[in-house]
Design goal:
The chain is of the alpha/beta class. It has helices spanning 2-17, 23-26, 28-40, 51-61, 84-91, 107-114, 144-163, 167-196, 213-219, 237-248, 264-273, 296-312, 316-322, and strands at 44-50, 65-71, 95-98, 119-122, 131-132, 135-136, 204-206, 222-224, 254-258, 277-281. It has a four-stranded parallel β-sheet, sandwiched between helices. Strand 7, helix 9 and strand 8 form a beta-alpha-beta unit. The structure holds zinc ion.
């Protein structure tokens, strides 16, 4: 009660003072209170194409941004089909963030349908890409060094969008980006150390689709996948037979399913090769909010933990190297 009446008094003074020379001194407390309110509410609507980008935008943007993902947790962006509500969401966005590298084959159509004319951020811009037969591998976020580039591209876009009208919010984003880069750097260092501790011959695993090429190159693991870089095609019987042969020849330490793919193919290969499925990896999407891999950093850490555990299990060579 008392607060409200005080606030109203300030408000009156501010409103009355607007046209007078005394305005500069009259409105200070109310003005400060309003500024504090404003700092807690989002001022940019950000639409990210998939959950990993949405999380990076939230980490960097903090409470200056309201972020939504078109392709949500555990969903497959390769085969996503936008709905009319997605068209409306993009139309109402201030900033749209994409991965690029042909990951979102549906994005140009969606942008055109929405009439969106705002900033279109390509998070992977500037990443040294891994070339496959069909073009660049889009899964660049699976190397934390590239994740740092993603975060920096997103930071630059948010700061540009904020700086003219909200310079203080832009400065907050800059500070958050510095802190986030430090966390990415620390996890990258930790990942290298944990994988390097395993014998090189144990570092071979089988996954559903070729989503871990950047991870493989950065951290020294060989991934074998029956599907190519996209989930849209079914592997041929020949490819499946080859994977089973590779697994049987003990060239693979572990088989892992992915959160976005039907696990039956990997389970079938595991059965035919006489191997156990060593867990689940998060490839192209986070897990549901409040669960094990609901942020980019948690997803990465979960994958590293799962891989290290799977590659260590039953490791005859691990035991041999441990003995003098
Ligand atoms: Zn993929």
């Amino acid at each position: 009660m008392e607060f409200n009446s005080t606030r109203r008094a300030f408000q009156r003074r501010f409103l009355c003072g607007l046209g007078s020379a005394a305005a500069g001194t009259a409105f200070t407390p109310w003005h400060v209170a309003q500024a504090a309110d404003a700092a807690a509410s989002p001022v940019l609507k950000v639409v990210a194409t998939f959950s990993v980008l949405a999380d990076i935008a939230r980490e960097v943007g903090g409470n200056a941004v309201e972020v939504s993902a078109l392709v949500g947790p555990n969903a497959d962006a390769h085969v996503f089909e936008p709905t009319p509500s997605d068209v409306r969401r993009v139309a109402g966005a201030d900033v749209v963030i994409t991965n690029g590298l042909r990951f979102e084959g549906w994005i140009d159509r969606l942008i055109a349908a929405s009439g969106y004319r705002g900033t279109l951020v390509v998070a992977s811009r500037g990443v040294a890409t891994r070339q496959l037969s069909g073009g660049a591998d889009p899964h660049a976020w699976q190397d934390l060094a590239h994740g740092m580039r993603y975060a920096d591209n997103i930071r630059a876009a948010l700061v540009t969008a904020l700086s003219a009208k909200y310079p203080a919010r832009a400065a907050e984003v800059e500070a958050r980006a510095v802190a986030y880069q430090q966390r990415l750097t620390a996890l990258d260092r930790d990942t290298r150390a944990r994988i390097a501790a395993l014998p090189a011959e144990r570092r071979r695993v089988i996954t559903s689709h070729d989503a871990f090429g950047y991870f493989a190159a950065a951290y020294g693991i060989t991934f074998i996948a029956p599907r190519g870089w996209t989930t849209g095609s079914e592997p041929s019987a020949e490819v499946v037979a080859r994977i089973v042969r590779q697994a049987r020849n003990a060239k693979a330490s572990a088989m892992l399913v992915e959160n976005i793919s039907d696990p039956r193919l990997i389970e079938r290969i595991a059965r035919e090769a006489g191997l156990a499925v060593g867990g689940k990896l998060y490839s192209d999407a986070l897990s549901a909010p409040g669960t094990e891999a609901d942020t980019y950093l948690k997803m990465f850490e979960y994958n590293v933990r799962t891989l290290v555990a799977a590659m260590s299990v039953g490791g005859q060579s691990t035991e041999l190297t441990a003995k003098p």
